[in-house]
UniProtKB/TrEMBL annotation:
The protein, known as: Glutathione ABC transporter permease GsiD
Boundaries of every ABC transmembrane type-1 domain copy: 77-261
Location relative to the cell: Cell membrane
Pfam family, one: BPD_transp_1
Organism annotation: Nocardia camponoti
GO annotation, cellular component aspect: plasma membrane
Transmembrane segments: 9-28, 75-101, 108-130, 136-154, 190-212, 242-261
UniProt record similarity statement: Belongs to the binding-protein-dependent transport system permease family.
């Protein structure tokens, strides 16, 4: 029986961390006590694990902390997935086209990427929020359209290296169109590092979203998010520290889990690239 390596064990631990939080966010809303917005001032500051009705306690307004934690998890995790997927898709398309065609196309697209990279996202969100007012939709739109540069650079580097390979040139000489060549022989190679980068970016995007929520630039009350719950809990840090600790632990579990899983994906990426390369070499054009 093959023994698991330390990297495999760490990845399994990361998956378990993420699974615990995701399962709680998905399953707890199905329970009878789920009420993230219900207020009972008489039950305010109920400590965790002291009553079955409020398993994680209540906040300053007597709202069920477990219900709000589950709803905040669904909102935060959903935003992270959408933002990462949108940016990965945009970056993959732009980077692949840039590296494959090179020349003027490469200069224009990478020039746009350099301009995008020169403007900090935080300043964009703060400036637009000052004009339009802060909202989760505004934050998600800006992050969804301004975080693609890293994916584009990685995609371009891979596509640029493949553009002179025999299995890419041969179909072109036989009359194959550029869309077919890119889809068949370029995108499979580009997709592997993009997926690895996206896995690693899940934690980074979650930190950014929580930071903007913490600053009041994202999700607005009474809708909960993990960053907003940490902000609200800080007001009662001496009286009820669990209001800050509970969402912070959930955030920590997901971020640490994604980092552990991404390390395993990075290690296995070389093997995936070799298998795709062997397929391109053996497969007739």
């Amino acid at each position: 029986m093959k023994r698991l390596s330390k990297r495999d064990l760490a990845a399994a631990a990361g998956v378990a961390m993420i699974a615990i939080v995701v399962a709680f966010a998905l399953i707890y809303p199905l329970t009878p006590g789920y009420a993230p917005y219900a207020q009972t001032l008489a039950d305010a500051f109920t400590r965790p694990f002291t009553t079955a009705h409020y398993p994680l306690g209540t906040d300053s307004l007597g709202r069920d902390l477990a219900s709000r934690l589950a709803l905040a998890g669904r909102i935060t995790l959903g935003l992270v997935l959408v933002i990462v997927l949108v940016n990965a898709a945009i970056g993959l398309v732009i980077g692949t086209i840039s590296g494959y065609f090179r020349g003027i196309v490469d200069s224009l697209l990478m020039g746009a990427a350099d301009v995008q990279l020169a403007v900090p996202m935080t300043l964009i969100i703060m400036a637009v929020s000052a004009v339009r007012g802060p909202s989760v939709g505004l934050m998600a739109t800006i992050l969804g359209l301004t975080f693609w540069v890293g994916y584009a650079r990685v995609s371009r580097a891979v596509a640029l290296g493949l553009s002179s390979r025999d299995f890419v040139i041969a179909p072109q000489l036989l009359g194959a169109g550029s869309p077919w060549v890119m889809r068949k022989h370029v995108v499979p190679h580009v997709l592997i590092p993009v997926v690895i980068l996206a896995t690693a970016d899940l934690g980074n995007v979650m930190i950014m979203i929580s930071s903007f929520d913490y600053l009041g630039l994202g999700v607005q009350p009474p809708t909960p998010s993990w960053g907003l719950m940490i902000t609200d809990g800080q007001k009662y840090l001496r009286q009820a520290p669990y209001l800050t600790i509970v969402p912070a632990v959930a955030l920590l579990l997901v971020i640490a889990g994604t980092l552990l899983v991404s390390q395993r994906f990075t290690a296995s990426g070389n093997g995936l690239r070799r298998s795709v390369r062997r397929r391109d070499i053996k497969e007739p054009a």
